[in-house]
Amino acid sequence: MSELLRLLPYLWFGLISAVAIFVTLYDKIAAKRLPGRRTPEKALFTIAGLGGAIAMYAMMQVIRHKTQHKSFMIGLPLIIAAQIILAAVLIFLWP
Questions:
Q1: CA dihedral 29, 31, 33, 37 (to 10 degrees)
Q2: What range does the domain containing 30 cover?
Q3: N or C: where does the chain have the smaller number of CB atoms within 10 Å of the terminal CB?
């Protein structure tokens, strides 16, 4: 059981990263073909905040989606930095 608990953060990160990639790809397709079915920016930032920021930022760079939006090109790196700091605190300072 403790082995599963130790792997849980990695499983979460993998799952939320996959969701971030899927939602980013969907929004790119919807931008071209389904304008009324776009993913709200709030939803994209929520997924990023839950741990998908690195995958989302990388995917946006690869598919050239929302790269002209300052809120994403500044916001996602800030979320990534905050998550790295939080992870470092949890790893090094948690008893």
A1: 100
A2: 2-93
A3: C
